[in-house]
Amino acid sequence: MAQNEDDDYEYRIKEGDHIVLKRGDVYKAVQIQRKKKVIFEKQWILLDNVVGHLYSTTFEIASGGTLQPKEDKETESSTDVKVAGTDNRNIVDDGKSQKLTRDDIETMKEQGLKNEEIIQQLIDNSSTFNNKTEYAQDKYIKKKKKKYENTVTVLKPTCRIIAMMYHGREPGKICHLRYDTLAQMLTLGNIHAGSKVLVFETCAGLVLGAVMERMGGYGSVIQMYPGGGPVRAGVECFGFPAHFHDMLHEFPICHVNALLAGTLDTGAKDPTAVRWLGTTETSIIAEEKHLNAAAEQEQIQPEAERQEGSPADERMETNTGGDAGQDREKLEREKRQEAKERKVKLEEKRRKLAAAAALLEGRNADGLVIASQFHPCSVLLGLIKFLSPSRPFVVFSQFKETLIECYTKLKEQGGTVNLMLTDTWLRHYQVLPDRTHPLLLMSGGGGYLLSGMTVATDHSEPPAEEPAPKRQKVKDSEG
Amino acid sequence: MSFIEYSNLIQDGDVAIVHLGHNSVTAVKVQHGAQTQTRFGVIRHSTDLIGQRYGCKVTCSKGGWVHVLHPTPELWTVALPHRTQILYTTDIAMVTMMLELKPGSVVCESGTGSGSLSHAILRTIAPTGHLHTVEFHQQRAEKVVEEFKEHRVDHLVTVRNQDVCKDGFGVTGVADAVFLDIPSPWEAVGHAKAAMKKHGGRLCSFSPCIEQVQRTCQALTERGFEEVRTLEVLLRVHNVRPVTLQLPDFGPDSSSSSSQATEEAPPSAAPNPASLKIKTTTPPREMPGHTGYLTFATKPRT
Q1: Could B93 and A184 be called an inter-chain contact, meaning their C-beta atoms sit closer than 8 Å?
Q2: Which residue out of B22, B37, B97 would a mutagenesis test of the A interface target, given it has the greatest number of A Cβ atoms within 10 Å?
Q3: Any idea which positions bind S-adenosyl-L-methionine (chain B) (predicted)?
Q4: Peptide bond into B208 cis (omega under 30)
Q5: What is the predicted pLDDT for the residue at B5?
Q6: Which of A101, A238, A388, B107 has the fewest C-beta atoms under 10 angstroms from its C-beta?
Q7: Could you tell me if B154 lies within 8 Å of chain A, comparing CB atoms?
């Protein structure tokens, strides 16, 4: 049995874990922190109690928002009324069928009645319930259950759950990328362990996280990012083990042209610095100088901040008197410490940039995944240059028109085959005895994909005419 | 070459995908001295393929050319020899994500069929996962074993030649996910549950008919599966092409000046002033309207 305990260890919820709360079809990702309250489905809950329980446990929300593991799941039998009508010819909507008032229900809730008991009360006090058909009764109970339900299930995050959560909660943040579309991207991109994949996304890190999950910590992912830094909120939700982050690299998209031209100086931190240093001064001395300059700049910053807070400092000086000199010394030390930290950070950033650049320089990446709010055409044409021949790429866009342009440009430029512009259509079904049908509501659109495969562009031959047999074939198939 | 690892150069014994244009591909087993006939002429393996880079353009004897691609499960799906009806990439993608497959996953599958899904599963669960696949048709089981060996993924898969509805998957308490593509999946639900880890896992059943779905859902609920969801996913292909639309002639317009009229004429309309060219997509005349219903469920901890 001791072994059994060990078996369970990885399935237990621990403090600091990233988890997903679920009720019905609603998900919310949170991190477990002691004494931290989170709001879920209009209820405050405290997550302290879930630590130590197994993942996928369902909890009941008690007063004060604490969670208690639900005892038994078989409470269905409590509402077995077996009198039912055959049709609704005698059911009149007079608004008076429910004899309980709003206040009555509120009082019941305040008394701490279980939701099953409240539902039973509602049924007992409904004059039309027994006349409803069996199916209508079932529907009534389900609806009420959903309303008075106060349970929550704690899940381990996976790509499936997080993609569904983002699509349900914040589709705007992920460019309306539906989960089935994301699934297509991962498959069309042949994302798997051991490859080197480029990702450009502005989907809060969801796409990046999905790619990382599929690679399982093997290989490398290079996140190409716009602006000041990569967005990875979605990646956090996955709660990856630390070693997954070793495979993750980042490269600012503003350096792509320099890298392609071979003029990228990985010693420089930002584009302005590249100008300062020029391309010839790549010696360590120059880098050092730059670093020192940057560190000094950073030094000025905290000083300015400190001056704002000077009244407090002065007060302290008058209070403690003799400690003033010490204080100043401490300040100096802090400043030096901060400068050192900055330098270390800068060094780290430079090292990361150099590492990412080294990965890209060979132009032998195995896959390219693009999903952003930027115009995909320039992104695709810029980044596809980093791919080896015979490697898949996939571009997502919320709009079809942008991908039509990509398609046309790629056709003109050559170097790709198997170009496909697609979207997927997703339909959910209600499957119940004698009541099976598609769900009444379905998602209108989950975006479009352009996928294809790179091939070698031959520079030796001129971009000659297509050979006769091929031309003929193309004409045949088009006609 | 391997279906789970990219390599740059084509070698003797590889399986290469020859791209003949317009989504037409065939799989070729590369062998010294061998030849492959295409409609553009012959490809001589020793000179045209071996030692060349994947993605290269090969000029065939008749002057036509083809591209030689590195195999992937997706290319294999469109190139493989059919021994049964197969699952295509759109459904495979959905199955992979909804079953939460990733490197290290242990998966049970039945039937193996032509191995279309099997290759995609192997790609995803490599290098540390394992696939236990069950095929009751002896010849098909033998054939697929041969293919796994050729594709250098045999170390990740065990093929069992037995009836999954009677004998189960041949393993118990090991699977993170189970996939069923058999005529009577409801008869295998119990075995599926037994094959899955004590801590739980995901199940998917693929059925073309709604009656099959109905019975499967019932069996799943009876066996204590949770989160039973049925869905369908369809691929829509958009053919990109320029379209020319004619503009009607309303006759001379007396209300506006003649100079304005010429300005408004579209620039692309030079040869025929009464038409407009737009870049758009057209749907294919026919498309697959139904492949199968996908039913997913979660096995809770037992």
Answers
A1: yes
A2: B97
A3: 114-117, 135, 163, 181
A4: no
A5: 94
A6: A101
A7: no
Residue B299 three-state SS: strand
Distance from CA of A450 to the nearest CA of B (A): 10
Nearest-by-CA chain B residue for A430: B230
Report CB contact under 8 Å: A216, B62.
Answer: no
- Nearest C-alpha neighbor of A44 from the set A19, A57, A62, A26: A62
Instruction: Give the CA distances from residue A171 to residues A213, A231, A478, B120, in Å, rounded to whole numbers and listed in that order.
Output: 21, 16, 38, 29
The 10s digit of each residue's pLDDT in A359-390 is 999 999 999 999 999 999 999 999 999 999 99
The CA distance from A204 to A221, in Å, is: 16
Segments in A149-222 forming alpha helices (H) = 159-169, 179-188, 206-215
Identify the residue whose tokens are 């028109």: A401
Report pTM. 0.85
List alpha helices for chain B, DSSP H: 73-79, 89-98, 116-125, 138-150, 164-167, 189-195, 210-222, 258-264
Asked whether this chain's domains B9-71 and B75-234+289-299 adopt the same fold, the reply is no
Contact (CB<8Å) B235/A391: no
Q: What confidence category does residue A99 fall into, taking pLDDT thresholds of 50, 70 and 90?
A: confident
Domains belonging to chain A, first-starting first, are 10-73+97-156 (3.10.330.20), 159-264+340-457 (3.40.50.150)
Enumerate residue ranges in chain B where pLDDT < 50: 261, 269
Q: How many angstroms away from the CA of B250 is the closest CA of chain A?
A: 31
Q: Which residues, numbered 185 to 204 in chain B, qualify as contacts with chain A under a Cβ-Cβ cut-off of 8 Å? A: 198-200
Nearest alpha-carbon partner for A124 in A106, A107, A144: A144
Q: Is A456 or A64 the better-scoring residue by pLDDT?
A: A456
**Reported CATH class of domain B9-71:** alpha beta
CATH number of B75-234+289-299: 3.40.50.150
Residue spans per domain, chain B: 9-71, 75-234+289-299
